[in-house]
Amino acid sequence: MKASDSRRWLALGALAIAMLTIGLDITVLTVALPTMAVDLDASTSALQWFSSAYTLALAAVMLPAGALGDRYGRKKILLAALLLFGIASIACAFAQTSGQLIAARALLGIAAAATVPLSMAVLPSLFPDPDARQRALTIWITSTAIGVPLGPIVGGWLLQHYWWGSVFLINVPMVIVGAIAVALLVPESRSGTVRRIDLPGVVLSSVGMLGLTYGFIRIGERDWGHRPAWLAVAAGVALLAAFLLWQRRAATPLIDLALFAGPGFRWGTVYLILANFAMFGMFFTVPQYSQSVLGVDTLGSGLQLLPLIGGVVIGTRINDVVLPRLGAKVVLTVGFGLLTVGLGLGGLTTIDSGFPYTAVWTTVLGIGMGFVMPSAMGLAMGELDEDRSGSGSALLQALRQAGGTIGVAVLGTVLATQYRSDLGALNRPPISEGVNVGVAVADELRDPAMLEQVRSAFVGGMSAMLWVSAGICLGATVLAAVVTRSRAARSPGESDPAQSVHAG
Question: What pLDDT was estimated at residue 491?
């Protein structure tokens, strides 16, 4: 391996560490919330804002961050974002009040909003060869995918040995390593065309994404009849529509709408949105099932996600071998098929299924994710030249984030509705608020029949949610088989088959 090749792959390792940190931070907070509620004397509303502040900042800043990277230098903005992520993590760890923590979480979201798209945007300059770029994308997406289920494991272990702030301090050494490696190994890159920043586009996109995301977060927390949430969604949609109209007229638009004319970017983005929509509910439901139904602690619930991680690793390794030979159409169709089967098996879960059954279907899910995510990402990124890699990556990640947020709201509502329906006579506060509260009430009253009913109702709600997710993935399987075309193999001199895609 040449020295320059070694530097590229070392740089990729640094970016993977940064993305692993981002993935961890998405879910590590969930296991720390009960402890933080006591130590910070936080209300239920404050606990919700600990998560929402991060998500809202992420949604609002991502598109402008990509454009700033294209304009002023992707490495420069990425390095600043990593340093901000480390500083914000320290601020989170030593927050003394709920307000301080919410502000620090918002800073974390801003830092992540620049880190995610720009760490992807530097890949085309690091790996100009299509084969090497696809392998790099696989590693990049795997580090993110593994970080999400690792969060409860790391958080559970830290909480057993240290105070709640440690779940944020774990970010600091990882960010330092990543920042040093980026500074030394990643080349600077920027758009060859110097453009003014589209300030009206920044305002319209940021406030529009803020309204849309906030509305669906509130719907997920309340219900589908919450009028203020729908007003926020409507305002967000209206502002985003105005943003798209402005982008058609602006001399230097924030995003290039012509990207969607390329079938690789268009369909790759659609597949990523559908996968995120279907999978986000699973990430937040399985730990609840482990704790409330199977009766394990926070660390145990995290460890029970190890089969999912193993499946992702297996899937990405297989994908790395078969994608160049079989092409995107076959890999995506098989991948979404595996997701459908895994989610369908999850939908058959009963109160007596136990962990071995969960391990089987989460492993299948992990393998499917390992097929779908890198392949769809490769399709989308294959359409981006170096001039548009920052804004294009930001657009892709912003749409993924929106899909995940809406997925949590929709799937969470399906779960809650079925849970309350299956409670029967127990459908009353506080039991109806959720399975964790219901189990706590049953334990306090020492009522085995109530405990059985609460657990059974939750499993019914989880099953309904997983069947909806399976239906989405089944539709995506058909879509991938119909609209994605790619050559099965290529000879030397041909372009990457993952990029040889067009709509049927």
Answer: 35
CB 228 within 8 A of CB 216: no
If 0-12 CB within 10 Å is exposed, 13-18 middle and 19+ buried, where does residue 166 land?
middle
CATH architecture of 258-504: Up-down Bundle (1.20)
- Identify the pLDDT of residue 502: 40
Distance CA 474, CA 402 (A): 21
Rounded Cα distance between 400 and 274, Å, is 9
Residue that wins the pLDDT comparison between 264 and 475: 475
Q: What confidence score (pLDDT) does residue 69 get?
A: 80
**pLDDT score, position 220:** 63
Backbone angles phi, psi at 180, to 5 degrees: -60, -45
Q: What average pLDDT does range 369-395 have in this prediction?
A: 80
Q: Once rounded to an integer, what is the mean pLDDT over residues 469-492?
A: 77
- CA dist., res. 276 & res. 63, Å (int): 18
**What's the CA gap between 16 and 12, in Å, rounded?**
6
CA distances from 439 to 20, 305, 334, 349, 480 (A): 33, 22, 39, 19, 42
For residues 185 and 181, what is the distance between their CA atoms, to the nearest angstrom? 6
Average pLDDT over the chain, rounded to whole? 82
Distance CA 185, CA 416 (A): 48
CATH of region 1-195: 1.20.1250.20
Q: What is the pTM of this model?
A: 0.81
Q: How far is it, in rounded angstroms, from Cα 397 to Cα 348?
A: 32
pLDDT in tens, 439-454: 888 888 888 889 899 9
More reliable by pLDDT, 299 or 192 = 299
pLDDT given at position 441:
87
Tell which residue, 313, 381, 327, has the closest CA to residue 137: 381
For residues 131 and 448, the model is more confident at: 448
CA dist 384 and 393 (Å) reads 8
Classify 294 as helix, strand or coil.
coil
Question: Where are the chain's structural domains?
Answer: 1-195, 198-253, 258-504
Place of tokens 């159409």: 329
**Residues near 338 by beta carbon (within 8 Å), at least 6 away in sequence:** 315, 364, 365, 367, 368, 371
Other beta carbons within 10 Å of 269? 24
Supply 446's token pair: 């020492």
> Quick one: tokens of 101?
């923590």
Angle at 103 between CA 102 and CA 107, to 5 degrees: 115
Rg (CA), the chain: 22
